[in-house]
């Protein structure tokens, strides 16, 4: 298993702080030849690429995917909408080899349930004009990324 | 079946006559001329008065009261009755030569009025002529001077949750629960003999801080109207009973009554929300409202149809259950256990639990072992509810069992199909038994027992997001369920036969039968310590076939109505 390290993505983006040392320690030799600036830049580029994918994923889940967004492997069920919560608190974990990463993003998820069943309670709900129900959940979206010759891609997304 | 004014079978089993409008008109003719009957004296102080009521929606109606009990409306003279509670008068009369009548609620202090227009047939929304239609018109009495008031009587939720025991001057006693804003639930203590409760659409109109107009139409049953003014502070009634009973006899009388306050269930609207028309129909036809008619919508299958859907495949805990979205996970506590349950007067069931969801059973010690899928939930340590179908049984039986392994006792809500009414409607019997097996104590002759601990209580159940209900255990033999709107108004209500068994302190096994209503046997093992239940539904329908499915929800205790003294003890209950 790859050794991973975590950073608070929001605080990272806000402060521009560098990633944790173990990651740097595993950076390519070429990067270590200088004062670490190249490694930090590489990590920043990784972060930005992963962030962009994550934003694309949310657009995809909201039904607004751009044409160049390949359908990722998502296991989140039927959603009405999904949005990062204001509190956020998301994290990105980059593998030491720089070829995989995972992100955890706090989200507010809306699901719509259609009461189409034949149970008495569903029949009575429909009778009252309550044929469907929208409810919101606070969930953590866990996304796995891999990096190949084409760059970063989403390997899997699910709710933790 | 001979006609009975008040049947000795459950009302949902009674074949009420499909009277024609002409037959009803014939029954109304003489009483229209005479006016309503009454055990006590009706009032006559309206002589010489003309009551011009300006309504919102039905124009202005003018009643001219003559001597005695004569009243003229639209040039038609009839007999009326009037009764006053404090300063609010209820007036009732019929229109001769028609199937129409009126009940007027008049606040003499502020001249606000509400007119209940009542009629049989004639383009009303009721599906049968014998079911009375009502339209409620609020307005004021035009006294000829000053500006028209802007205030009106109005629908209210102020009575929601309350319960009273009313005794009419006829001697008839009725327990009335108001667990809903649009329905009520009543228990006839004298007219009927079996102490069941029934549910019906009901208007609740606030007249003053103390006085309300309550009007229920016994839709789906006799179709008659039972309405009254109630002074909930003085616990007094003045009412009107109007309609056709089970013997097709016209009941048209006014009454006074007195009552007892029995308690109050919690309301669940947001604090400050006093709105009271949660199911209002926009652009409704006159008198139209939402009346739940479960018999019309339920599947009605023959034995052959039931056999066919069962042969096509049963569904035992094999798909998500809307009734258990918030349920707890099944337990594997029975896996690898073996025991036998001997039911008193019932079968002897031998069990081998192969895994957490597969068992083998054998009945009465003979025949082959049969395999069945089951689910189980351990609701208190050693107290487990499980259920399975008995494949091969002629009535497609299901056993829903609470096995109290710590005490060696079991109770079984034995469900079966092929009832005399609808083949797919679940019948049920309650079986008490003892468990024998390794490490299980012998209870001797001790068994679980029926309980009244739940009587009068109400629990909310949050089954799945957006699917909630409240149970009201209104009699020792009745489970009622009420469906809330998203904003917490409890509204549509229905009910069926119930049974209630105490398993342990704060652990109760209850059931309901959706008779003439979807046909389900529902069971719940209620843990009042964790305030959660686990249960099993047994159902057969055209779409889903024969199924067993999970029931489970967190609960709130909505209150307890003090009704036990009204129900005589019977053997075993």
Question: How is this structure best described in words?
Answer:
Chain A has 5 helices and 7 strands, in the order βααααββββαββ. The model of chain A is unreliable at 1-29 (pLDDT under 50). In chain A, a hairpin with a 2-residue loop joins strand 6 (132-148) and strand 7 (151-159). With 160 residues, chain A is an alpha+beta fold. Chain A is elongated and about 70 Å long. In chain A, strands 1, 2, 3, 4, 5, 6 and 7 form a 7-stranded mixed β-sheet that branches. Chain B is mainly beta. Helices cover 5% and strands 47% of the residues of chain B. Chain B has 3 helices and 37 strands. Chain B has helices spanning 21-34, 294-297, 303-311, and strands spanning 37-38, 50-55, 60-65, 70-73, 76-85, 88-94, 100-107, 112-119, 133-141, 154-155, 162-168, 173-177, 183-188, 197-206, 211-217, 225-231, 236-244, 250-264, 315-316, 338-343, 348-353, 358-363, 370-373, 375-380, 383-389, 398-404, 409-416, 427-436, 449-450, 457-464, 467-475, 478-484, 490-504, 507-513, 521-527, 532-541, 545-560. A 9-stranded antiparallel β-sheet of chain B has the order 23-22-21-20-28-27-26-25-24, with no helix packed on it. An 8-stranded antiparallel barrel of chain B has the order 11-12-13-14-15-16-17-18. The longest helix of chain B is centred in the first third of the chain and has 14 residues, at 21-34. Chain B is elongated, with a radius of gyration of 26 Å. The relative contact order of chain B is 0.12. At the A-B interface, helix 5 and strand 6 of A face strand 33 and strand 36 of B.
Topology:
The complex is a heterodimer of chains A (160) and B (573).
Chain A: E1 4-8, H1 9-15, H2 21-25, H3 29-32, H4 37-61, E2 74-75, E3 81-84, E4 91-95, E5 100-114, H5 120-127, E6 132-148, E7 151-159
Parallel strand pairs in A: 2-7
Antiparallel strand pairs in A: 1-4, 3-5, 4-5, 5-6, 6-7
Chain B: H1 21-34, E1 37-38, E2 50-55, E3 60-65, E4 70-73, E5 76-85, E6 88-94, E7 100-107, E8 112-119, E9 133-141, E10 154-155, E11 162-168, E12 173-177, E13 183-188, E14 197-206, E15 211-217, E16 225-231, E17 236-244, E18 250-264, H2 294-297, H3 303-311, E19 315-316, E20 338-343, E21 348-353, E22 358-363, E23 370-373, E24 375-380, E25 383-389, E26 398-404, E27 409-416, E28 427-436, E29 449-450, E30 457-464, E31 467-475, E32 478-484, E33 490-504, E34 507-513, E35 521-527, E36 532-541, E37 545-560
Parallel strand pairs in B: 1-18, 19-37
Antiparallel strand pairs in B: 2-3, 2-9, 3-4, 4-5, 5-6, 6-7, 7-8, 8-9, 10-14, 11-12, 11-18, 12-13, 13-14, 14-15, 15-16, 16-17, 17-18, 20-21, 20-28, 21-22, 22-23, 24-25, 25-26, 26-27, 27-28, 29-33, 30-31, 30-37, 31-32, 32-33, 33-34, 34-35, 35-36, 36-37
């Amino acid at each position: 298993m790859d050794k991973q390290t975590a950073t608070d993505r929001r605080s990272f983006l806000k402060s521009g702080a560098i990633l944790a040392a173990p990651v740097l320690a595993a950076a390519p030799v070429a990067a270590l030849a200088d004062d670490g600036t190249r490694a930090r830049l590489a990590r920043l580029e990784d972060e930005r690429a992963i962030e962009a994918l994550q934003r694309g994923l949310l657009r995809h889940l909201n039904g607004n995917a751009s044409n160049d967004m390949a359908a990722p492997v998502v296991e989140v069920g039927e959603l009405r909408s999904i949005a990062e919560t204001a509190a956020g608190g998301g994290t990105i974990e980059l593998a030491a080899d720089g070829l995989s990463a995972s992100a955890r993003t706090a989200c507010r998820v809306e699901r719509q349930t259609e009461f189409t069943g034949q149970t008495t309670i569903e029949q009575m709900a429909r009778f009252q004009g309550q044929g469907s129900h929208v409810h919101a959940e606070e969930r953590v979206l866990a996304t796995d990324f891999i990096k190949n010759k084409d760059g970063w891609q989403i390997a899997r997304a699910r709710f933790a | 079946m001979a006609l009975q004014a008040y049947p000795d079978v459950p009302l949902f089993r009674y074949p009420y006559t499909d009277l024609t409008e002409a037959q009803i008109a014939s029954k109304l003719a003489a009483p229209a001329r005479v006016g309503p009957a009454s055990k006590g004296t009706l009032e006559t102080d309206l002589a010489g008065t003309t009551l011009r009521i300006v309504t919102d929606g039905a124009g202005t109606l003018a009643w001219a009261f003559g001597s005695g009990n004569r009243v003229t409306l639209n040039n038609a003279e009839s007999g009326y009755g009037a009764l006053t509670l404090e300063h609010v008068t209820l007036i009732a009369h019929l229109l001769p030569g028609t199937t129409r009548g009126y009940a007027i609620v008049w606040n003499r202090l502020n001249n606000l009025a509400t007119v209940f227009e009542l009629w049989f047939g004639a383009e009303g929304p009721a599906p049968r002529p014998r079911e009375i239609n009502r339209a409620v018109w609020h307005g004021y009495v035009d006294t000829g001077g000053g500006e028209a008031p802007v205030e009106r009587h109005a629908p209210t939720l102020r009575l929601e949750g309350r319960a009273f025991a009313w005794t009419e001057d006829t001697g008839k006693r009725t327990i009335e629960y108001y667990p809903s804003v649009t329905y009520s639930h009543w228990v006839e203590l004298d007219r009927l003999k079996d102490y069941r409760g029934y549910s019906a659409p009901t208007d609740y109109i606030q007249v003053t801080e103390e006085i309300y107009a309550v009007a229920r139409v016994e839709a789906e049953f006799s179709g008659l109207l039972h309405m009254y003014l109630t002074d909930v502070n003085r616990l007094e009634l003045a009412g009107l009973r109007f309609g056709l009973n089970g013997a097709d006899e016209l009941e048209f009388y006014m009454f006074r009554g007195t009552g007892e306050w029995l308690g109050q269930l919690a309301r669940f609207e947001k604090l400050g929300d006093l709105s009271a028309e949660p199911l209002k129909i926009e652009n409704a036809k006159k008198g139209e409202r939402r009346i739940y008619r479960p018999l019309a919508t339920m599947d009605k299958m023959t034995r052959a149809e039931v056999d066919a859907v069962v042969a096509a495949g049963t569904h035992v805990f094999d798909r998500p259950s809307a009734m258990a979205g918030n349920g707890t996970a099944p337990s594997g506590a029975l896996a690898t256990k073996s025991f036998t349950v001997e039911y008193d007067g019932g079968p002897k069931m031998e069990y081998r639990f192969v895994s957490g969801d597969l068992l083998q059973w054998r009945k009465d010690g003979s025949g082959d072992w049969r395999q069945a899928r089951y689910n189980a939930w351990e609701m208190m340590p050693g107290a487990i509810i499980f259920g399975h179908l008995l494949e091969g049984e002629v009535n497609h039986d299901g056993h829903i069992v609470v096995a109290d392994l710590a005490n060696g006792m079991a109770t079984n809500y034995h469900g079966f199909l092929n009832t005399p009414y609808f083949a797919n409607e679940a019948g049920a019997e309650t079986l008490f038994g003892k468990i024998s097996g390794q490490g299980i104590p012998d209870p001797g002759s001790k068994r679980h027992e029926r309980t009244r601990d739940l009587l009068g209580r109400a629990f909310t159940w949050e089954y799945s997001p957006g699917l909630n209900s409240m149970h009201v255990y209104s009699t020792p033999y009745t489970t009622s369920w009420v469906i809330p709107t998203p904003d917490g108004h409890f509204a549509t209500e229905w009910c069926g036969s119930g049974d209630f068994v105490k398993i342990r302190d704060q652990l109760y096994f209850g059931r309901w039968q959706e008779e003439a209503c979807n046909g389900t046997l529902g069971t719940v093992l209620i843990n009042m310590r964790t305030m959660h239940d686990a249960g099993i539904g047994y159902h057969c329908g055209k779409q889903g076939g024969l199924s067993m499915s999970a029931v489970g929800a967190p609960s709130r205790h909505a209150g307890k109505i003090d009704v036990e003294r009204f129900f005589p003890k019977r053997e075993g209950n």
